[in-house]
Design brief:
The protein has 3 helices and 11 strands, in the order H-E-E-E-E-E-E-E-E-H-E-E-E-H. Helix content is 19%, strand content 37%. Strands 6-5-4-3-2-1-11-10-9-8-7 form an 11-stranded antiparallel β-sheet, with helices on one face. The chain has 243 residues and is an alpha+beta fold.
Length: 243
């Protein structure tokens, strides 16, 4: 049953979106995607389906192929001005990112000490515009309809995201052409918070929990590296301009 889950979800999302597109339903108004409250907590579970060939060599038949399912769990705890994003990767590795704008600090059992980064580092995630950066593509322009799921009304969105220039150039140099990735998402029509997100072979579901009641306190090693960076920036600001 676990093996079939992502395919059932994919089929359900896809079929319902197609049906609602035919109805040509207008967008009902309001925000397409809301930000959470200043104190909030949610878990995003992402299941990736990776085709795995059988062990029969080049003569293996298509029927010998199976889907290897990989699951990543990301728990976000938001207590402004502190945000904690904790990840359990498909391989079991655990890592956390402490976000205290404009700083983000990565901790992992594979790192000798916390790693601090700021924008424009590619690792840095800007949460100033949205709590769900992976869904920033959602807009009224790619709204395709509404479906009732149990007692809940869900807004459906769909688009195709083109590959980034670097990936496209690499593929072209190797003699391949990359096509865009089909993305679909559902949003609770009442709360305007995400329900599901499908991107290629990945299917994510969102589960919102009881909000925390107090501000998170980063561990001493995280606070120390931020304090050190703040002191460094302060020293730089006191350096008189040359000339």
């Amino acid at each position: 049953m676990k093996l079939l889950l992502p395919f059932i979800l994919a089929a359900a999302i896809g079929s319902s979106v197609v049906a609602q597109t035919a109805n040509n339903a207008p967008f009902p108004g309001g925000p397409v995607l809301a930000k959470t409250a200043d104190f909030a907590k949610w878990t995003t579970t992402t299941i990736t389906s990776v085709p795995e060939s059988g062990t029969g060599g080049t003569d293996a038949s298509p029927s010998s192929e199976k889907a290897d399912l990989k699951k990543t769990i990301v728990t976000t705890t938001k207590t402004l001005p502190v945000r904690l994003v904790s990840t359990i990767a498909a391989n079991g590795e655990e890592r956390s990112i402490w976000c205290l704008e404009p700083f983000e600090v990565l901790t992992s059992q594979h790192l000798p000490k916390p790693l601090l980064f700021t924008s424009p580092n590619p690792i840095y995630v800007d949460y100033s515009r949205s709590d769900f950066p992976e869904l920033e593509w959602i807009s009224e322009a790619n709204f395709v309809g509404i479906q009732k799921v149990g007692e809940r009304q869900e807004l459906h969105f769909r688009t195709t995201i083109a590959p980034n220039a670097s990936a496209a150039a690499t593929a072209k140099a190797a003699g391949h052409e990359l096509s865009g990735t089909l993305c679909e998402a559902t949003v609770d029509a009442k709360t305007r918070l995400p329900v599901s997100f499908k991107q290629g072979d990945e299917i994510s579901t969102y589960n919102f929990e009881e909000p925390p009641t107090s501000v998170l306190v980063p561990p001493p090693e995280v606070k120390a590296i931020i304090t050190e960076e703040q002191a460094r920036l302060q020293r730089l600001s006191r350096v008189p301009p040359s000339g």
